[in-house]
Amino acid sequence: MADQAFISNDAAAARDVLIEAARAAGRVALAHFRAGERTRAHIRLKGGGSPVTEADLAVDSFLKGALIQAFPDAGWLSEETEDDPSRLVRSRLLVVDPIDGTRAFIDGDKRWAVSIALVVAGRPVAGVVHAPALDETYAAAAGAGASLNGRAVAVSAHAQLDGARIGGPRSMVHAIESGAGLSLRLEPKIPSLAYRLALAARGALDLAIASERSHDWDVAAADLILAEAGGILVDASGEGLIYNREETLHPALFAASKKLIGPLLAAADLARTGRNPTLAPGA
């Protein structure tokens, strides 16, 4: 009952706290960012070979201090903090990616973001994707809609897959086109997954997809923003995502309006199985 009361009464207030924290964190990151040039921030490689900079760590430390103070009963899950299993017994969880798109940040590409979500009972109730170098702040609260810099946003009204604007891995997009006999408008690579999904939420993309192995921190905030904008984020079976599980990894993910998600999943299934009767043998 307490969690339901939180969702209905306090999600918007939580969203506003996350917006303030994300913008402040963005200023921390911008101190190390050089648009169009490589960062001077110290860089090291993590265990899996992905880079992390001193800016990632500074933002993570700043956000942990600010958000744990604001939400003292919440657990903590961040890409740049060692996972603490005690989060699993908390009904509320802060899910953070200090800099989503670190490689873009390093190279001076402005399309990176600070991503923060507050999850209650497995689903985000407040979320922010803030792109500091672009001065774009996407935010949502459960039941209160989604916004970009304070103005309401909505998913694209595009009515069919053919000709749709899509963001995602080139290999996945080409497989869907080939398997389902479609022509899609693939946008240039969008390095931050959170930002890619936010673009779908505001209608700048009709569709967005992600390869397998995204984590909770990559998608939790954008998941809510997309949902509150009238869209949906699901796996290949059409199931929505549950957060604060022991395993933070997700399979391939698909985002679209509610009108296009079914056709998109059907096209992805054709790409996997090759069962398209309109294609000639061997096509």
Structural description of this entry:
The longest helix is centred in the first third of the chain and has 29 residues, at 2-30. The model is unreliable at 276-283 (pLDDT under 50). This protein has 7 helices and 16 strands. Helix 4 links the parallel strand 10 (165-167) and strand 11 (185-186). Helices cover 36% and strands 25% of the residues. The protein is α+β, with helices and mostly antiparallel strands. A 7-stranded mixed beta sheet has the order 3-4-5-6-7-8-9, sandwiched between helices.
Quick overview of this protein structure:
With 283 residues, this protein is of the alpha+beta class. The protein is built from seven helices and 16 strands. The strands form four sheets. It has a seven-stranded mixed sheet, sandwiched between helices.
How much of the residues is beta strand, in percent? 15-25%
Question: What's the total count of β strands?
Answer: 16
Shape: globular
- Output the number of helix runs: 7
**Average pLDDT reading:** 93
Key phrases:
283 residues; Fructose-1,6-Bisphosphatase, Chain A, domain 1; 7-stranded mixed beta sheet; 5-stranded mixed beta sheet; 16 strands; disordered C terminus
Question: Any chance you could write out the topology, listing elements then pairs?
Answer:
Blueprint: H1 2-30, E1 43-45, E2 51-53, H2 54-70, E3 75-78, E4 92-100, H3 102-107, E5 113-120, E6 123-131, E7 136-141, E8 146-148, E9 151-152, E10 165-167, H4 170-180, E11 185-186, H5 193-201, E12 207-210, E13 214-215, H6 216-228, E14 231-235, E15 249-250, E16 253-257, H7 258-273
Parallel strand pairs: 3-4, 10-11, 10-12
Antiparallel strand pairs: 1-2, 4-5, 5-6, 6-7, 7-8, 8-9, 12-16, 13-15, 14-16
Helix pairs in contact: 1-2, 4-7, 5-6
